[in-house]
Amino acid sequence: MRLLYIVKKEFLQLFRDKVLLFILFWAFSGMIYTSGSGLSLEVKNFPIIIYDMSNSSESREIISKFRKPYFKILAYVNSDKELTQWLDSGKASMAIVIPPDFKRKLDKGNGKIQIILDGTMSMSATIASSYVSTILYDYSIDFLERYKGIDKKFFKMIPLIDEEIRIEFNPNTLSSWFMSTLELFNVITMVSLLLTSAALIREKEYGTIEQLLVTPVRTWEIFIAKIIPTIVVIMVLSFISIFVMLKIVFGVPIRGNLLLFYPVMIFYVFAMSSLGIVIATIAKNLSQAVMLMLVILTPMLMLSGAWTPPESMYPIMQYLSLISPMRYFIDFGYSVLFKGGGFEYVWQDILGIIVIGLVLFFISLYRFRSNFHK
Amino acid sequence: MFDRIKAIVKKETIEILRDPLYLTLNLFVPVVILILIGYGLVLDVKNIPIAFLDYDKSKLSREYVDSYVNSEYFRFYSFINNYKEAEELIQSGKCRAIIIIPPEFSRNLYKGKPAEVQILIDGSFPSRAETIKGYAFAINYQFNQKLLTHFSEKNRIFINFPIDAEIRAWYNPALESKNFIVPGMLVITLMFYPVLVASLIIVREKEAGGIFNFYSSPVKPWEVIFGKAIPYIILSFITYIFLFLISVLLFETKFIGSFLLLTLATILYLICTIGVGILISTLAKTQITAMLMAFLGTITPSFLYSGFLTPVTSMGFEGQIMSKFITVTYFIDVVRGVYLKGLGFTYYLPNLLSLFIYALIVYGLSIILFRKKVG
Questions:
Q1: Which of residues 262-301 of B touch A (CB under 8 A)?
Q2: So what CATH class is B48-155?
Q3: Rounded to two decimals, what is the model's pTM?
Q4: What is the CA angle A134-B102-B138, rounded to 5?
Q5: Fewer CB atoms near the end CB (10 Å): N or C, chain A?
């Protein structure tokens, strides 16, 4: 009963701050919308320039294959110097150089063109170069067919391996599905840590925590009362996120069982909130806490496995990532929401979240008790 | 006038120095972040676990399998026996790709007929899936070329693919992601860290009531803003020196540009990022709000919309709009340019000018907002 009153007080404090509520709502709607619709991980409109020394109908034909949505031709250049300038200034990310003897060599069957990539963005450069190979391969077949009089059927009669690629769960590799879901996980992680920690620090800075401690309220009741509003807020807002933003706006096919997703998510929020309380007991003021949260949150968000899969990390980072609850949550979240994986696929992730959550819970309880002992 | 600024600078400096834990954290946290993410964030897609469902089990199919296993991109996981296992491996995330070789694979190829293999790719991470697709295509292409040469020799007909591309990457020839992540991380760390630090410096006094001392004193709003900004600009400049040394000495990132140019540009950049923090601080009424705004507004956006991971040109409309608000967008090209391209000052002028305007807007808004409250 007492607990109920303190929880009520926490909610009142939270709802009094209208700006805060707006920011929270924005985080779960606007931020998810912009990252889903505004970001694309595939390389689109890759800015290129052309240096065509051959100036033949064949070279123009090839150039015409480099078109939207993947490539965007910015300019035709006429000298090496110009080419270097475009790449140096970073305006163009790729240059296609077609040598003067291109047509002659092509007829002989060994045409060569040169592709120069700006390697400063290695990830998009790799993807762009794979587009180039596909374009040239298609052009080769086309060329053989039209100029060498080789019938298309011929390719069905020679030993070639045709690969049929099927991408599971996200057949068109839509980044909107991936990004909006990732942003939801990011926001859940940040809010659950920040909100709880800040609420406790505020009481510490104002000294109102002492007032609470002199009342008959038990320590664990204060503790729980700090976590409950965070859980409720995230539950409600993430419900809106999943059903409105992900499902309706972006059409993410939610394949999994939400009855599995929700309880684990609540436990995850609980774990992150406990971590927030640990931080609040260490820091004297919010400025210190911000620094501590920064050093925990940034690596957690960036190394969650969404950008670098655990299998590609250095071994030492692989082990380090095992202590980050977000690593399990991301894997769990994508498995359940995207792949529709049942309990048998994600039990290890759930176990990870529970173990880390319990450890954090006991540490935070211990720290809380020794910090605010009556 | 300058005496008043000096006094505020002194007061702020004393406040920073009085809190040793805070000061240590300030110098320690950005360094830890750079080291962890510099080592941890690997965007080269390598060692992708791959499994094979080989119905053919012939010498040729084995050769095909080897062409994947021997490449540096894939790591052999296992041979499997049926389709259900394949689905399960992808479902559980143990394998990112499965190659299915049909029973008549070698028979068809020996007869001179085409054969078809099926490749399943885990699409839950789209950019990785695209890269895997590209690798699979390239390996298949090479294998085909081998088959074709063999076939042409045997049947004395001449066919080969008439066109070939020589692909070269400038500035970062091996396309190592380290060379673009570490300078990028330097820029990003110098975004969210100063913003977070500065986001509390005014709102803190609003909550504690100390702000009324300013309101009732003859000090002008712009003197307060700059007086408070300067110590934090100096503090984050020290951080920059640390981060730079780590990037060059520990990560051995390619650095061929001018250190002086980078340093001067960084000072302008830090003025901007501290300014963003101060603007948040004048906007927010409570510390919690300021902190949430700073965290949510900088950490993920500076990674996502700045051109750090994906070029701004590939973004959708909303993303391009977002990128204009983020300081990193204007500075990341400068830093990558200095580190990897080593260009002269003139190449960076447009970006530096944008940063200058950005600073004017941010400080102008802060001063106006602060003045309103005074009145």
A1: 284-289, 291-296, 299-300
A2: alpha beta
A3: 0.88
A4: 20
A5: N
